[in-house]
Specification:
alpha+beta; 47% helix; elongated
């Protein structure tokens, strides 16, 4: 047998004898097949085993009378058991999903009902708070009107209350109404909904146009008001609102509208309508009343003096 090695990346195997060399007068000369380098292809076409070891093992098994082991009943039974168990698991999982859907729906409905009940209770308490505030202001004004110092204090309190949105105000107003796009006009990404930033842009545009007071769906805006979103709901001072959204701004209605429509906020409204189908409307009102803000936490404040 010749030696094999790696000679600088080249195969150095030489004179490798083959196992199926012919017998006879050529056997004594160490005869090698001319196509030894293609023995794999030759074996394939000749139908011979790829590995002589496999052939020898098969011959020994045949000599002992052993053949290929037939698939016994236990093997077939094991496969059947696995299939049955897998089917049972899938059936149980599907049944659990079907049972959990009604339970989840009931829990969702219960939470919605509880939210509505708590909202109604909060609204009732706010109405009661407004009534008590009105009565308190009436009694305070009557007490302060008894002296000149009291009247001056009453005027100072009125100006501070107006600046802090701490009391209800009335007057002519411009009402901007926004609503989500119609379901048939909504995009797959649901961009046809009114977002919190849309209300922020509109409110800032109305302030810039000269509004003296603003409320969104009856929620009065203050210097500390937050307009944000939570899930699919828009919150104004942590109060959830639902469409349509009515932004009411006190001031000269004609002047407010003229300034608002040419501002960046007016352009934003037109873009929402043309691109996403969001509906809006501008309406001038001769008289509108905005309630006092609720939940004020401002502890200290003073009027800013112009520089």
């Amino acid at each position: 047998m010749g030696a094999c090695g790696d000679g600088g990346g080249r195969n150095t195997c030489q004179n490798v004898p083959v196992t199926n060399r012919p017998q006879g007068d050529q056997g004594e000369r160490g005869w090698t097949r001319p196509d030894a380098s293609m023995s794999l292809l030759a074996d394939l076409f000749a139908g011979e085993a790829l590995d002589p070891g496999y052939a020898r093992a098969a011959a020994r098994r045949a000599a002992r009378g052993e053949g290929a082991r037939p698939a016994g009943p236990f093997r077939h039974g094991g496969v059947l058991i696995v299939v049955i168990v897998a089917g049972l698991l899938l059936a149980v999982a599907g049944e659990q999903v079907r049972r959990s859907e009604p339970v989840a729906q009931k829990q969702r409905e219960r939470l919605i009902t509880e939210i509505r009940d708590r909202t109604n209770e909060t609204d009732a308490l706010q109405r009661r708070l407004g009534e008590l505030r009105t009565e308190t202001e009436r009694l305070r004004a009557a007490a302060l009107a008894r002296s000149a110092d009291g009247r001056r204090a009453s005027d100072d309190l009125a100006r501070a209350a107006d600046a802090a949105a701490a009391r209800a105000v009335s007057g002519s107003a411009l009402r901007v109404t926004l609503d989500d796009a119609k379901p048939s006009e909504r995009a797959a990404s649901d961009t046809g909904r009114v977002y919190d930033q849309d209300l922020q842009i509109i409110s800032n545009g109305l302030w810039a146009a000269g509004a003296t007071a603003i409320a969104i769906n009856g929620q009065r805006l203050t210097p500390t008001t937050a307009i944000r979103t939570a899930g699919e709901a828009i919150l104004v001072d942590y109060r959830p609102l639902s469409p349509p959204y009515e932004v009411t701004a006190l001031g000269d209605p004609g002047r407010l509208q003229n300034r608002f429509v040419v501002s960046a906020a007016g352009g934003h409204l037109r873009l929402l309508k043309s691109q996403f189908g969001i509906r809006f409307d501008l309406q001038q009102e001769s008289v509108a009343t905005l309630p006092a803000a609720v939940g004020l936490r401002l502890l200290h404040a003073r009027e800013a003096t112009p520089e």
